Amino acid sequence: MTPLQELLNQRDTTDPSELMQQLREGLSHTPAASGPGSANHQLLLAYFKLNERACEVSFASAFKRYPDTALALLALCAQHQLTALGTLMHSVMQGQAKPDGTFQRALKAQATEKANHPGLVAALQGFASAAFATPGHEAEIELSLAWSALEDCLLDEVALHGAHIDFSWGPTERKKRQEAQAVQSALADKPAAQMLQDFLTDAAPYVMAQPSEWDMEHEGAPADIIQIPVQHVALNDPLTQAQVTHLAAYPAALQLLAVYRQTPGVALFCTDPDDHWTAGFLFLPPAQWEDAGAEMVDWLTSVDFQDDPESLPAWVRSAIAFGKIPGDASYWMLPLEGPLAGHVLLSNDDVSAQTSRYPNFDHFVATLRVAPQTILGNGGYVSYPSAGGGHQLYPVSYGCATPGRY
User: Residue 90 has what pLDDT?
Assistant: First the structure.
């Protein structure tokens, strides 16, 4: 199986835009190297240019700058019977945008449903006044909402020549795989419970951080990676016997139980050891699990499942909300039962999608140890002010003065 075929095998579980981003990173710049897939290879390269322009400026501008590519995509719409999208694209290409009103009708229906929430209705009306100011504005929104269908068609075309198109894993995926291997090696070397304990004995720990790509590209922030001293603080709030008995009854909870027996709560990556809300990650003390779980469920039923709160799966209500990134409304959770029992999820992102971030609790702890930036980066809530206070710095790695800390 080629790397491209391996990538395409993820289509059932991965958004088309994510797959297209990996394609962009790993696709060679020489279509001829793809043999029978060279035409599709060339179309992909052209598409990436058009899509970049559409993201940075507008679809109208992208179609105007790359008319041949726009026509090729229009033909693809016709081939795959994306009639509404093709009609909309054609109108924009002709300079006479004709949105079909799909998005406007959906927004009006939502406003009608929320008529007893005047604040929300006012917000929707404010958004609508800008979104529907001109047919061109409305068409841009409709195109952005329908664009993933076109990307799906492109992926269908790519799949026809998956064995031939010249593609290798790009830097993002290579880094992800290297981190996964580091996690496996760390788990083979020592138990997760010991890895969490090791944070507490790290000498002179620090986080390496830098400005966001946006700040570097648009605000002139320096790309320098800055070392920021941090501390780790044990919270020492032991499990009760009732909690131990409860967790021990669930095979899915045994890894969490083993870790919490040794470290029952810890504030990691704190800039102020006396203020645990400066932490980069909190393993909540067991005494806070119940309140955290209630808050998690309340948020989910008020937002993600607001139309039918009773449809929130029962396994969510019994899950352990064990962790939190200060500032984020989400909780890191471990279901005790159900289809994702034993996995680790980020509540507000993963519950409604019924997907998980990590296959088990030990894997989560090991990732936090060897590649914490992948966890601390979720939601963009963990940051540190730059020396001048002009921008925020985001974690890219962790280190300490302790030799051979892994």
Answer: 97
Q: Of 376, 395, 366, give the one whose Cα is nearest residue 206.
A: 395
Mean pLDDT value across the chain: 91
Burial bucket for residue 70 (CB in 10 Å: 0-12, 13-18, 19+): buried
pTM: 0.77
Quick one: CA dihedral 63, 66, 68, 72, positive or negative? negative
Range of the domain at 140: 3-97+134-169
User: Taking Cα atoms as reference points, which of 193, 194, 261, 275 lies closest to residue 233?
Assistant: 275
Instruction: Tell me what the mean pLDDT of segment 325-346 comes to.
Output: 95
Q: Mark whether 254 and 303 lie in a shared domain.
A: yes
Q: Which helix (H) or strand (E) holds 130?
A: helix 118-131
pLDDT for the residue 389: 79
DSSP letter (8 states) at residue 239: P
DSSP state of 312: S
What residue has token string 């070397």? Answer: 189
* In-domain check, residue 228: yes
H and E: helices and strands count for the chain:
19, 10
Contact, 204 vs 405, CB < 8 A? no
Nearest Cα to Cα of residue 25 among 155, 157, 133, 174: 174
